[in-house]
Amino acid sequence: MKLISILLILASLISACNMKDIHPVYESSKVLSNYPSGSTVCYLGDRFFIMGDDAAEVLVLDDSMKERERIRIFPQGEQMRLPKDSKADVESSVVIDHNGKPSVLFLGSGSHSPYRDSAFLLEHELKQVQRIDTKTFFDRLRLEVKDLNIEAATMLDHELLFGLRGNTTYPDNYVVVADYTGLTFKFKRKVLIQSSLQDAGISGMDYDEKDDILFITFSSEDTSNSYDDGQIGESYLGFIANAKQALKQDKLIITELVKLSELSLEFIDQKIESVSLTKEPRKLMLVADDDNGNTKIFTLRY
Predict the structure, then answer these.
(1) What is the mean pLDDT of residues 220-240?
(2) Torsion sign (Cα): 237, 260, 14, 281
(3) Where are the domains of the chain?
């Protein structure tokens, strides 16, 4: 047991030393034309898949950030943005293995049942989208937290991680660890995110398997519940070193936290909603929503 403890301590020290080499640097930003409320992004097969929480289509970009196609998920009327009271509110996405093929899973936030108790599986090669009823799983999560609001997702080994966002009434943020079989999800445990941020909730998440780093974005918003929007504040990028070991604890301690507006003034009045690894090493894409229906993407080097 002593040897195991020593090895764990050494692994943590090595990871902490490696984190000293991480210095995020703003690279670029771009407003996406005629695409509303970007809320999540993930990367699969040389393509970025972006979804807005009130958008009817998935926006697909290539590595040069150029639009390649749009894939419709919901019927759309005359307005570009879907109605707030009945939208699915897709706020997170993750690449999963489905029938031996990687597919993109988009998740509703669960913040307004039953309208937001769904997930949508996109099989890109077939251009097919399948709706999944997640109410049973979301009801299980509602036993763990008050005012459920799923805002982030990623994969670590063979487990799914979901980021549950707090608000001014219930300020705690959690990472939920879950198993999945086919398209059925099973709760395993939740981990409290320990943070010094005031009124900032988790908004995005991705995992770097090579360096064992969990990236988490946070945004501050003056709202007392999971349904209403509030005034936009600051956004942050957090790093968790030695993530596999860190997630086995009761509390998830952020190794380093960066206020994004200090990297570039382009981040002012932008609510960062998601983060994704890219094809290039040590490069991230972030997606922002300004609550006026506009979508902006950013790239960072680290």
Answers:
(1) 82
(2) positive
(3) 2-301
Residue 95, C-beta contacts closer than 8 angstroms, at least 6 positions apart? 42, 43, 44, 102, 103, 104, 105, 155
The per-residue pLDDT for range 254-281, each reduced to its tens digit, is 999 999 999 999 999 999 999 999 999 9
CATH entry 2.110.10.10 includes domain 2-301: yes
Contact predicate 88/108, CB 8 Å: yes
Query: Are 201 and 166 contacting, i.e. CB atoms less than 8 angstroms apart?
Result: yes
**pTM passes above 0.85:** yes
Confidence of residue 75 (pLDDT cuts 50, 70, 90): confident
Q: How many CA atoms lie within 13 A of 186 on its CB side?
A: 6
pLDDT band at 226 (very low <50, low <70, confident <90, very high): low
